[in-house]
Amino acid sequence: MDLLNALTAFANFILVPGLAYGSQLALGALGITLIFGVLRFSNFAHGDTMAFGTAFVILFTWWFQSLGITAGPLPTALLALPFGILITIAMLLATDRVVYRFYRKQKAKPIILVIVSTGVMFVMNGLVRMIIGTSEKNFVDGARMALTPQDFKAWTGLAEPLAIKTTAVVSVVVAVICVAFLFWFLQKTRTGKSMRAFADNEDLALLSGINPDRVVMVTWIIAGTLACIAGTLYGLDKSYRVFVYFGLLMPMFAAAIVGGLGSPLGAIAGGFIVAFSELLVTNAWRKILSYLVPPDWLGDGLYQALSTDYKVAVSFVILIIVLLFRPNGLFGGK
């Protein structure tokens, strides 16, 4: 029985949050790796693109709520998501036309585009702060719990309760749908095959008659969609603050590099590796250990390797280790 309680506590503090957070990181890392694979630069504005899209999802969510439109037990933000995606795509396509296309025609080096994306990041961050402010925004509604601790204890008779938030379930389900659709698109459609060919060998793709402008446009459309969805899921599951999304850049880049930059499958695997690594290192293990060892063995310690305030250090360490020992990532990216 104590082992089951320990496993339940592990699921409560590590497994369920890790699946939700990993899903959000994976979607964010997919956008980064697609832009790197096709457009060949690291987009430092991706975190603020997520914040931008989520800001409009929040505004539409509040509008729907004021009109009495809801999604029942699901968050109303899911109804507002398509509108946020469209605005995010429009913003990215406009930014590409005004900013990135000039440097692409000049055949600028990737480092130049990285610096340019940093400038876009600061502009976008200021724009989002003007639109929605800097304070924490709460836009979650619907059923709070998909599984309540009381129901779980009543069903199992265990001392340790298990709580599963609706937003965690939504994060995993939406991520699975997005990933399945993306892989189908890249593998089965003509446009998806063109994107893969362009990413593998740009010169050969151009000789084959592939339209580079179309490939670039579709890449931004997919990246914008993934960014808005990832940002909304993160905001629903955690909270929405503009500066938090800038902080997500490190774990998302770590996820993309761990899997292999340019590899969509690697971005997904990297997202879950980074998410679970952060939780395993920053979790206070006392609760779980209390079911496995006698109480007098534990003393007063929390058995926490790092405070949650320093969880970004986990991503940073993972990033350094991978760059030192396997720079191509687990799935052989660039």
Question: Key features?
Answer:
73% helix; 334 residues; 15 helices; ABC transporter involved in vitamin B12 uptake, BtuC; mainly alpha
Describe this structure in words.
By secondary structure, the chain is mostly helical. It contains 15 helices and 2 strands. The chain has helices at residues 2-39, 46-66, 77-105, 110-132, 149-156, 166-188, 190-200, 202-207, 212-237, 242-247, 249-259, 264-282, 286-289, 295-298, 312-325; strands at residues 145-147, 164-165. It has a two-stranded antiparallel ribbon with strand order 1-2. The protein starts with a helix and ends in a 9-residue tail after the last helix. The model has no long low-confidence stretch (mean pLDDT 89).
Describe the secondary structure blueprint for this structure.
Blueprint: H1 2-39, H2 46-66, H3 77-105, H4 110-132, E1 145-147, H5 149-156, E2 164-165, H6 166-188, H7 190-200, H8 202-207, H9 212-237, H10 242-247, H11 249-259, H12 264-282, H13 286-289, H14 295-298, H15 312-325
Helix pairs in contact: 1-6, 1-9, 1-11, 1-12, 2-3, 2-4, 2-9, 3-4, 3-9, 6-7, 6-9, 7-9, 11-12, 11-15, 12-15
Helix content: over 70%
CATH topology: ABC transporter involved in vitamin B12 uptake, BtuC
CATH C-level: Mainly Alpha
CATH architecture: Orthogonal Bundle
Quick check: average pLDDT? 89
Largest sheet: 2 strands, antiparallel
Q: Helix count? A: 15
Domains (count):
1
* Strand proportion: under 5%
The helix/strand order is: HHHHEHEHHHHHHHHHH
**Shape assignment:** globular
The beta-strand count equals 2
What value does the Rg take, in angstroms? 21 Å
Output the strand order for the largest sheet. 1-2
Distance between the termini: 48 Å
Uncertain regions: pLDDT < 50 for 5+ in a row?
none
**SS class:** mainly alpha
Oligomeric state of this protein: single chain
